[in-house]
Description:
By secondary structure, the protein is mostly helical. It contains 20 helices and four strands. It has a two-stranded antiparallel ribbon with strand order 1-2. A hairpin with a 4-residue loop joins strand 1 and strand 2. Helix 5 runs antiparallel to helix 6 (150-181) and helix 8 (200-216) runs antiparallel to helix 11 (244-258). It is globular, with a radius of gyration of 21 Å.
Amino acid sequence: MMMLPDLVPALPEIILAVGALVLVLVGAFGGERSTGLVTALSVALLAVATLILLFSPAAGSTFSDAFVLDPFARFMKVIVLIGSIAAIVMSTGYARDQGFARFEYPLLIVIATLGMLMMVSADDLIALYLGLELQSLPLYVLAAINRDSVRSTEAGLKYFVLGALSSGMLLYGASLTYGFTGHTTFAGIADALSGGQASLGMIFGLVFLIAGLAFKVSAVPFHMWTPDVYEGAPTPVTAFFAAAPKVAAMSLFIRLVADPFASITPDWQQILTFVSIASMVLGAFAAIGQRNIKRLMAYSSIGHMGYALVGLAAGTEAGVRGVIIYLVIYMAMTLGAFACILAMRRREGMVEDIGDLAGLSKTHPMMAFVLAIILFSLAGIPPLAGFFAKFYVFLAAIQAGLYVLSVIGVLASVVGAYYYLRIIKIMYFDDPAPGFEPMAPELRVVLGLSGLFTLFFVVFAGPVGNAAATAAKTFF
Length: 476
């Protein structure tokens, strides 16, 4: 029988689960009038979970070792929770102005975040799948939450159908892994593969597992859902999709390959190298012709997941550290970029065309300045945060002898810089388009924090690097 102290490592998840049940009741009895209260309580719940992770000394495993809280899980969970809090905060103005206020929205984010935290701590294939589905199901609903929009409904349906396909592939891979090793726990799989040799069936299982996770991080060739879902979903939902779920899925990716499959690194290294190159190249070239800024951010996201996978493909402690730093910086830049996209609002409604940013430096100089910083950073221009993100992963790849991967990554980064610089050119050199409505206070806060982090990353590099190094040591 499991005693209460045994559940302490899972305390943040338990609080979110109980809190979500309470919020369902609050929303059910209060109706649409309770939206503001549910939103505030959701942010408070996520903040409490963050504080527990930051200040509780608890560590260890629970649920028969299927759930683990270690330095890696603690750090990544804090990043995920910050992303979820920012997504809820950024959506309040949009909900108010667009008639989008529904109590289900923050509640679904809380449930999805619970799934993400379980994913990050999963130490067993069954726990991995449960966390993944608990994260995915609310995301399908969120994509289609604007019931009056055909595009939103279409986005939700596409995401659901393709997500079900990816879940099936992941389950098939998990069943093959269990069949050829006799274990579902990561420690048991690691012991079964400790000889460094994997059977052909085990390799097939590994391929299917990686395919399922590649879908969740929108890596090529499992990226097909990303542009349509990013464009069709309501903009605050797209901002959420681009931040926290990517970090959680990549964290699960790291734990899966660096823990149970560490002894057969050359086998998964080849797969990740191909996926990484394909993602970087497609992300760089496919975004060039985009006119919708949300679709452009979708292809940008595919490219950035490719860069993050460069570090993971290295299969070293430095590589994992580089991926962790990359994810922190990527989330900060993405939230700032989407704060600007959410501010692209005129009296007649939201606009999404890149041409609508024309002359932004004259109509909204501060917004144009911070967005330019974020875009330069996404392109990897020094001394901004995005440069350091790419520097760490490419350095790890070079140290691991993956020279071709590094060269292709740098070339893709140069191509990708074109479409970021084109937006800056439009903002600063084109004739001004009609100005946007004043930016909501919550968007100003998110954009300001993102801009400061991106511009002055050298100040934060020490603490972030040390925390990432401690997290990476978990697997080595």
